[in-house]
Amino acid sequence: MLQHDDDISIDFDDDEPFTSPEDDLPAGFSAFHQRFPAIVSEHFREPEPETPNATTTADDADLQRRINDFLETLIRPRR
Amino acid sequence: MTQTPPSPPVPLIDTSGFATIYLTLPAGSFLEEWGEAKQRLHSVTGAVHQEPELLYILGQASMAARLQLKDFRGLIKRVYPNAGSRTIVANTVFSTPYVINRAPAPTGSETGSLFRFMTHMRVRRTVYVNDPVLAESFIVDELRNLTAGDGAAVAIDAGIGWADFVLSGAMQVGQFDRFLNWLVAFNDLRIPFDVGGAGYVFKRTLTLIGYPWKSEKDQAAPIISGFKHPSKALIFIRAKRGRLAEVKHALETNFDPVDVGFVDGKLDVVAVCSNPQPSFLQQHQDFFLRAKEHSIERMETHLMFDSKNSDALAPRYPASSDCHCDRLAELIDRFVEGGALHVLPIGTATAIKNIGFLSSSNARDSASCCDARPAIVAIWKSLNRLVKRISGQQARSQEFGIPEDLSLLLARNIRKNIERIDLWLLSADRVLRQRTVGSFEEFLGQSDRSLSYGGGVQKGLLVSDCLMNDFYAKMKGSRVEFRFASVYDSVDHIMSIVRTGIVRIPVTKAFHVPGSLPDLWHEVGCYEFFRVLPPSRFKQPVSAAWYRDLADYFGDLIALVHGFDLDFHRFATALVHGWHEWKTRDESQVAPQSRESADSKEWHFALLLNRLIVALEFYMEVEQPQLTTDRGKVHASAFLYMQDLATSYLGNRVAKHHKLRSVRALRNLRSGRADLELLRRQISQQDIERAHERATRPVSTVTLSAQPAPLMRFEKSTDLNATFRDLYLAIEESRNPVSLKARSAFAPMAALARSAAIEYYRRMAKKP
């Protein structure tokens, strides 16, 4: 899988899926580390905070505990 | 039949490297520039010695400044030559020495008893086709044996730029005759046939001769008794306008005997010193330092040796071409002349044809073509896609009876794609330039114009290109294609130009491939996102900002699954560390008025948490789907734990808590759920199983000691992304939790980068 064949290096043919021609993409750059948002106003429009459930059952508490236990393992190195 | 000699030991790469800056100076400015270089290159960060070694050089250069460095970044930040320099042309050659156990360098008790030489060598790529580490071991061993002996100290460096090897020698003047024999022998060097194939090892060699310069005034030059018949010296001169007679007179006064002739072309005068005396270098120095008084603008001196030696007359190349880069040039020609560009404005098509010429000439330059091939193919593939897209959009827009709004949308998108080709033109030029700086044809012909750094770092670019191509193939489960081209650039973090496969890397990462790896994986993921997930596949309407966010989320998932093999902690730490490098690491060096505001930093910190939470939610769905039934709970807890992870890592670098941090970090997770699920569906169950399987494999044994590191041998199927990742993780684990500084890993990084470069030569080489 990771071998470079002799002839692949000079093949311009493209396997790109052709979607609808009206689809197009933003110009510019992408980055692993964040860019400043392209449309700042949209990002600064704060969403409504989500309201938590009014009542908490025993099952809820158990699920919450299991979620937390799992997350606890992730913030420490695995290997 | 001859037997293969026993294999030499695998060579070790040392714990510091060399940067050699070659300068061509206008006549009469040597002493001034010597003072400038001495001052400018004093106490460079990362330098082993406070003072650079400064050399007076014959040939195309006038001066060389050499620095031994434990970290090349200090030199890049220092910027020399700078605007105040008198230099006409400058090239920097970076190299990392192999450990060669020899007697200490001759120091010479008398001034002028030593001379220096630097030989740059380019290896025929098919030498590496069988076993690259064994071939490299034989080459190092042959060079070591050839240059062994008293009165000479020759370092053998692995070149990082165009040259594959750089020999740096200091010799006593009595050894000059021996040195002349080496110049012929370098070109005749061979390794066993079953290791390196038929023919000579080196395709090109380029040598510069000089001597150390330590004085603010004249320096005693070496007395070379080895200048014996039929050696000659050739001096090429460009005279001041209308001053040929003065130059001729000066030459005849200073050199005896000398034949002076006038020539056409860029030079005016050629002088042949047919019987150079032992004091020739002193004569030359006196003449060069006062060249301005002799009405000389430029001067270049070469030594001419016996051409009757039978070794020198032997052919250097095998009869047939040892690569297939010529075919690439033909393909580019067919593409640009085949009518595909008719859909573009004439100006754009013309500019593309010019890039076509640059690409073809690069592919036809047998001294440097192979290393550039992946990048050249990648940029032309990406252009082909853009041109095809425009062609499709134009065909659609000309269909009978399409609605007006669609017609306008198509016209706008065609325009956007043409603008994208404009960006491609600018970037493609830089991609090509960075692959030819300091190459044989260009060496000291023009300055390195790579903007962010002076010098050739072609091997770093090649390895980055190939790692991204391999990673894409791993992600897709397909064979390797050349889709990505890296450029070192004046950016503060790695980013890519949408839809081109061109990835811009900060120049500080030029010598630190492992540190770029998570970002390179992310860019490969973004590339695939833009390729297969156009806006029409998401819940409508999709804003430009949200579409870009989706690309980043997708890049993260790809890095987590195919790069980190679903090790979430390491993925998350890499993301947080990247944020630290970008946002907080160099703040002490930024002027207070230029620092980012606390509000902006806090906003970006919330966005970092947002990215971590999206990746975490995906990870939980994969590993513990039963815990994801209540999204509200998952999000609330994920926020707290990711904040804990990031703040534990960053310490007091995080801004004071903001009341809206959780709202910002959890934004769009509910409203964009359908879109996020579409991203997750791109990761198949097979991808997950493969990642789990890879995670069980043993980690490469990487030790970060301060000792020299050996070259690494790979199988043809070795996943070099995993090898670089293991080194990256070893470096990360050495970080001090408070200062976040990692242990120096110069030798392991240099050894891995060299091993990877020669392994890629093997994988790309034409089979005999």
What's a quick, concise take on this entry?
The complex is a heterodimer of chains A (79) and B (768). Chain A is mainly alpha-helical. Chain A contains two helices and one strand.
Structure description:
The complex is a heterodimer of chains A (79) and B (768). Chain A is mostly helical. Chain A contains 2 helices and 1 strand, in the order βαα. The longest helix of chain A is centred in the last third of the chain and has 17 residues, at 58-74. Chain A is flat and about 40 Å long. The two termini of chain A are 27 Å apart. With 768 residues, chain B is of the alpha+beta class. Among the domains of chain B are: 12-212, 2-Layer Sandwich (Alpha-Beta Plaits), CATH 3.30.70.100; 232-304, Alpha-Beta Plaits, CATH 3.30.70.920; 709-764, no CATH class. Chain B contains 23 helices and 17 strands. Chain B has helices at 30-40, 73-78, 132-146, 176-188, 193-196, 244-254, 280-289, 310-313, 325-337, 346-364, 369-397, 404-436, 458-476, 513-532, 544-563, 568-583, 598-623, 631-650, 661-665, 673-681, 685-695, 720-733, 746-764; strands spanning 12-13, 17-24, 53-57, 63-69, 89-97, 114-123, 152-159, 165-172, 202-212, 232-239, 259-262, 269-273, 296-304, 485-489, 495-497, 502-506, 709-710. An 8-stranded antiparallel barrel of chain B has the order 2-4-3-9-6-8-7-5, surrounded by 4 helices. Chain B has a 4-stranded antiparallel beta sheet with strand order 11-12-10-13, with helices on one face. In chain B, strand 11 and strand 12 (269-273) form a beta hairpin. In chain B, helix 9 runs parallel beside helix 11 (369-397), helix 10 packs parallel to helix 12 and helix 16 (568-583) runs antiparallel to helix 17. Chain B starts with 11 loop residues before the first strand and ends with a helix. The mean pLDDT of chain B is 88. Classes of the chains: A mainly alpha (79), B alpha+beta (768). Chains A and B meet through strand 1 and helix 2 of A and helix 9, helix 11, helix 12, helix 13 and strand 15 of B.
